[in-house]
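Objective 1.3, modelling of assemblies. Example input:
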Amino acid sequence: MACAPAHPPGAARPLAPPAVALEHVSQVFRGTGGQSVTALRDISLEVAAHSFTVIVGPSGCGKSTVLRMVAGLLPIRAGTGRIFGHPIERPRDDTAMVFQRPALLPWLTVTDNLLFPLRHRGRPVTGADRDRAARMLETIGLQDFARSFPAELSGGMQQRVGIGRALLGAPSLLLMDEPFSALDALTRDEMSFELLRLRERHRSAVLFITHSIPEAVLLADRICVMSARPGTIRETIEVDLPAPRGPQTLRLPRFHDLCEHLRALLTERA
Amino acid sequence: MPLFRLLRASAPLWLPPALAVAGLLALWEVTARAGLIPPFLLPAPSAVAAAALAVPAPQWLGHVWATLRIVLLGFAAAVAISLPLAVAISRFALFRRSIYPILLVIQSTPIVAIAPILVVTLGAGDLPRVVITAMIAFFPIVVGTSTGLLQCPDELIELSRSLGATTGREYRQIRLPYALPHLFSALRVAITLAVIGAVVAEFVAADEGVGYFIRTSTAFFRIPLAFAGLALLSVLTLALFGLVGLVQRLFFPHSLAASDARRSS
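Predicted structure (tokens):
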């Protein structure tokens, strides 16, 4: 699937439009007592095509709301949002989501879970699709579990299926909502390295939500630091750690400097 | 207690309940034979069996079939009404709030009190009996299924939305399969209630059926025969209950595994 659509006629854009562009997006919720709560205030962010952007912030800062808006699950009422230059109106076929919990269907095998998005969009599943699913299983290291049911897999394996399912459609944009937060610390690190490895093959743009500082620094090309009440972007940091990233990245002094910097940003408000 | 230990360790699963039933029957037989209870109040199991065997088999089969037909028609009607109702209840909050009080009123009205009225309204024939049976069986199906449909985890619904699926597909491919364990628990309760409904209906107006048989037997004070009919009803109920489980195991094996997994996690 081509990720860069033709330029809108008349638009003077020398480059392909970014994967995600939010401009001055705000969100006000009406509270139960009639008072309004500003959940998001003036959020602007850009995810370049093929790049990895992480939004990091404390719980309740509205980072998941931002992701849901980009996913087309929540309407943007104030400000504008575009994906590859197109206004966000509804969930798009070239965008895939990975959730905090694996969101697998317990009555389907691992293979059928990988193919579920096709079926759920009403497309016939062809032999070629099954081949791609088999290759994806090898990529995520679960080739021996093709016929297993999700309940037979560990939490980390389940989330790998969730990621594999999202990547199988070769999305141009991958939205990840704290995908590793339900995993134990060891599995979490392992999954981060695995995601980096998968990204070498699938160069989709990623918008990744987390509240883990090391995870953000390890994965991101760019980090948007959010603060809460109202949710705003406090600072945007370009991460200049060398590629390829992996376990060795964690030992770099620069990695620790960036983590310290983020920690200071996230705690000084409190 | 070496016997208990042996039972726990190596007995097949059906043995303990079978022993319990046999023990109860033996106690009953001894009590009746000792003359502690007059036989016209509580006949011995052997007397019940003898009375049952005295009735020709075709006559029994005629009664059983009459009751079974009402049970199955009423149960089918209950399922046919309950499933769309459960979908609508889970889909529309306003509908849920408006319909629930009505359902509760129907459920809490004693079926024995409505049955004669329905017979007058709907006339003779199968119709009033089927309606009475459906009325008593539908409620657990509606409640169980709508609960299952609503308990579907948010992340699965969000997955469906993020894939841009229609509501129809969300129900067919996610919510309904997810609700299957709930649905089958409800169906098991409903099938036993359907037998009760059919018997109540036969008590009120019928000229055949096991319920009718029990009523006429008691009217002529043939208590052993009435007990034989009762035993037959129990067997019928157990068989239907088992049948629902069998259908689940054969056609929806994963709904069993899913409920097991959910229970253990």
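Chain B has one domain: 43-264.
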